[in-house]
Write a structure and sequence with these properties.
There is one protein chain. The chain is mainly β. It has one domain: 2,3-Dihydroxybiphenyl 1,2-Dioxygenase, domain 1. It contains two helices and eight strands, in the order βαββββαβββ. A hairpin with a 5-residue loop joins β2 and β3. The model has no long low-confidence stretch (mean pLDDT 87).
Length: 138
Amino acid sequence: MARPPITFLYTGVRVRNLARSIAFYEGLGFRIRRRGTMEHGGEWVHLAFPRQVPRLELNYYPKGNRFYEEFRSGTELDHIGFRVRDVDLWVRRARRLKARFLFRINETHENIAYFLDPDGICLEFFGPPRRRTKSRAG
């Protein structure tokens, strides 16, 4: 049986001060590849070394954001991200493995599902948006 295509793309970490963290990682030689604002108000920045694919994703969630939490030892790792062609296929696979489902986000530009592995580490599977099917009037 052929394995479904999947790419390990990044590890996401929570940061307390986004500008300070960017300056630190740029000082180590990382370069900003992409950045943006999440629909819920958090900010993310993808950093990578030149000519390398794996990325470090810095995530900042301001107070009042649904993902904000006070920092304590062990909360810095936000999630590990995997780019996939078919998110639904990976959702089924994770459910078969009895991974704990967290939530799903279906945006116009991508489809995202979050699960916890057996040790509580958050895994993100993201890919193209779900195709919309037209209902038949009948």
